[in-house]
Amino acid sequence: MMRSEQQHAFPRSWYPLCRSTDLKRGQIIARHAFGHKLAVFRTQQNQLGAVDSRCCHIGADLSRGFIDDDFLVCPLHNWAYDVQGKCQRIPCGRSQEEIPVRAKQPALYCQEHYGVVYGFLGDSPDFPLPYFPDTENYIASNVRIIEFDAPYEMAGANSFDEQHLAAVHRRQVIGEQQITSLSPNHFAIEYRANVAPHTLYDKFLHLIGKSRVHMALDCWGGNLLLFKHIGTANQMIISLLPVNATQSRAFITTVLAKRGNRLLRPFQWSAVRLLNIFTMLFVKQDVKALQDIDFAFTTMLPEADNTMIKWYQYWKRLPRNTLTGSNSTTVKSVTSTVNESNPTSMKPENIAQI
Ligand code: FES
Ligand SMILES: [Fe+2]
Q1: Which ligand is nearest to the CA of 59?
Q2: Of 15, 12, 13, nearest to 251 (Cα)?
Q3: 42 with 69, same domain?
Q4: Is the pTM of this model over 0.85?
Q5: What pLDDT, in 10s, does the model give residues 131-143?
Q6: How many domains does the chain fold into?
Q7: Please, where are the H alpha helices in the chain?
Q8: Which residue puts its alpha carbon closest to atom 3 of ligand 1?
């Protein structure tokens, strides 16, 4: 991204940057996120960092640098940055006091969880990384990644879109969807749906005598989606990353609570792998339908689109940040707006091209 390009603001949240296994000690990898190139790294002491890869000196690519002990070192003049992005060493005879205050890279606060390295977009985390409370003792699948050409928030909205459940997945919602919210960062629904033997996963459910599912879906920060299949041990987390305003990446992990004695463990490992493959196939249906979407709320149905509209309103209210740190409450990454006083009436004049 050129310096002159517009900075896009995204909700202050934890974003998935890479798999934990992609990043060994002493390694740096380049990843694109929020319209920027990042240098994501793990120090020799196992500290995680993610900084804008354009060095604040004269712009060399830090992802082509190297790790020296606890620092990410620029390949060109060897300025050394810590995991907060602060320059701690300039080798050309400068003392610590002479390092300019401005010698600092925009940085994300990093943590890893369920096999994914996350970075928080914002000065400090507003909420902890969410997890399934009963799976402290868990088995997590490998992390699978899907890329798609659509704004990342469309995948969030899609998870709360009742119409697509029937149209894309042949799952018909029965009864009311229960909507709850624990904080401004959180939005959740619970629903029951009849399942047709359409996908491999739903054929499997039929095979084991389940023609109805009871799902709980929690969303944190607008991009962390925790699905719980109530009545079974199956849980999954889908973490979404805006690569830029129109391209996205989804990280998918299946999580099972450890149950029973150790002798059952090999079966649980097989189950978690199988469920993760089913989930991937399920999500691929969404990706196929969402690819290249030209998003605009134009003709909405008051009831059938209600939950999706409410999710979008929640997402739109989330506090925002850019990678370079300026707080913003303005949504610059979407192509339409919702009339909150009458959310089912989206008029063309409400659509603001940005
Ligand atoms: S460009 Fe990075 S230290 Fe000079
Ligand atoms: Fe879907």
Answers
A1: 1
A2: 15
A3: yes
A4: yes
A5: 877 656 788 899 9
A6: 2
A7: 152-159, 162-169, 200-207, 265-290, 306-317
A8: 77
